[in-house]
Automatic annotation (TrEMBL):
The lineage of its organism: Bacteria, Pseudomonadati, Bacteroidota, Cytophagia, Cytophagales. Its cofactor is Fe(2+). GO terms for molecular function: catalytic activity, acting on DNA; demethylase activity; dioxygenase activity; hydrolase activity; metal ion binding; oxidoreductase activity, acting on paired donors, with incorporation or reduction of molecular oxygen. Residues 95-194 form the Fe2OG dioxygenase domain. Signal peptide: none annotated. It comes from Adhaeribacter rhizoryzae. The keyword Transmembrane does not apply. The keyword Metal-binding applies. InterPro entries: AlkB-like, AlkB-like_sf, ALKBH3, Oxoglu/Fe-dep_dioxygenase_dom. This is Alpha-ketoglutarate-dependent dioxygenase AlkB. Keywords: Dioxygenase, DNA damage, DNA repair, Iron, Magnesium, Metal-binding, Oxidoreductase. One of its GO terms (biological process) is DNA alkylation repair. Pfam families: 2OG-FeII_Oxy_2.
Amino acid sequence: MKTQLCMPNAKIYFWSQFFSPVQSNYYLTELIDTVAWQQDKIKMFGKELPLPRLTAWYADPGKSYRYSGITNIPLPWLPVLLPLKEAVEAAAGHTFNSVLLNYYRQGQDSMGWHSDDEPELGQNPVIASVSFGQTRRFDFRYRHDKNIPKQSIWLENGSLLLMQGPTQHYWQHQVPKATKLTQPRLNLTFREIK
Ligand SMILES: O=C(O)CCC(=O)C(=O)O
Ligand SMILES: [Fe+2]
């Protein structure tokens, strides 16, 4: 079922069971096994620190993506990713030429506050985010006014979150640590690199 999140200066839609549990469990194991996962390092306070998650970047030829000082050179599309891309494109009414995959091995893995506002995404990017495996909390905070309350949603197995319009200009998001959780989660964010 599709719902719209009610947040100012944002256009966000959510489908709780976009993929069935059977499909989702298949994709979870298949992607964990076949994706070329890597652990990037970022420079922080003069030190090199490993990112607290594994990532991979699949995209059309020439579509590189740079964030946090890391340049992602695209890998050619894996066949298993193509039906996912098509299903998400049909729901979003938008075509994508790339996907960033994040592998949260357990609750210690996380992603800090950020907006998806890199220049290669252009103005008002459409970003379609699919989750498989362990349910994790996804938080939003308003960038310019601390009085606007934070919002959170639970991204469960098989869900689809679509962020578009001015969302990235006005809101940041994060996936906080959840240290008690032991099960893996995969997230795929489909993007259009200009
Ligand atoms: O894991 C998630 O749900 C969020 C991923 C994300 O924000 C990103 O890849 O930019
Ligand atoms: Fe993001």
